[in-house]
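Sharing a chain and its predicted structure for anyone who wants a worked example. Both blocks are below, sequence first, tokens second.
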Amino acid sequence: GMSTRIGRIAQLIAGEDGGKQKTKCGCLPDTSASATPLQQNLEKLGGRIGMIAIVVCVVIFIIGVAMNRTDPSNPGSPAWLYMILIAVTLAVAAIPEGI
């Protein structure tokens, strides 16, 4: 039964609420409490890489607008519009998927 050692282990595995897993967004189980140290470190690293990528993209945007870089295929377009496209492209490419 559930009062034996195996029953207590089953209760611990299932959780105290009878086996219902807590959900993060209503559809996926929340596994953040059982993350390994490697997963925690990778999460921190991903956050740092994301912040650095955003800073670099903002700097590239500012430098590109200051240098008046325009779209080579459409020289009449404003520089800020072209540099927004470049900065967003770099951000999407640089930011890790897990952030």
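Comments welcome. The mean pLDDT is 81.
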